[in-house]
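Fold it.
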Amino acid sequence: MTLLNQKYTSVEDAIAMIPDGASIMVGGFGSPGTPFALLDELLAQGQKGLTLIKNDANEPDIGIGRLIRAGRVDRLITSHIGLNRVAIEEMNQGRLAVEMYPQGLLAEKIRCAGAGHLGFLTDIGLETEIAQQRRELELNGRKCAIEPAITADFALIHADVADTYGNLAYRGTAINFNPLMAMAADKVIAQAFRVESPGGLKPEAVHTPCAFVNHVVRVDPATSEQGIRAHAV
């Protein structure tokens, strides 16, 4: 099987690789950069017991909000859930475990994993609720805490353009958490509005090199950004 055939696949086949109980990083900051088509297919296939890692919980009726509403998510690692009243209710009722970090800490925990580090030292949040379960130490006369890195079984990524080898290019603010998560997960599934043949992306335009990407799906831009299930085309 060629490298091209291994990476360029259908949305159904790509998502079918995710088992129940998987941990999944999901790109996006609100709607920009969120891989809606991949999430909608995950909802359709019925995987459950999931741990999701995303900057936010989206709104109730789009993105990971639909998975939370359907009861498919057991644990959410995030920086805020304020726009999703369903996630707040599920958390308050004890049906959804929510682990929250300041946005900068969350991003660095993911970046650290992608760089191959086990964690990092920080003085952010000392003597607050954030630090309750962290190990503290002193370095060069300053008190700090160990913040562990975060990894995941899968990352679901949104790109503007990809090639069949898996090189990815993002557009504008949609870049956000996507390149960090693409480096921090064991397997990476990327959706893109356009998929080029090898050589179709100039080297200087590539944000995420193909070495980090396992599968690429082409989706219709007319539907996927609206949180409506999209099919590979």
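The longest strand covers residues 152-163.
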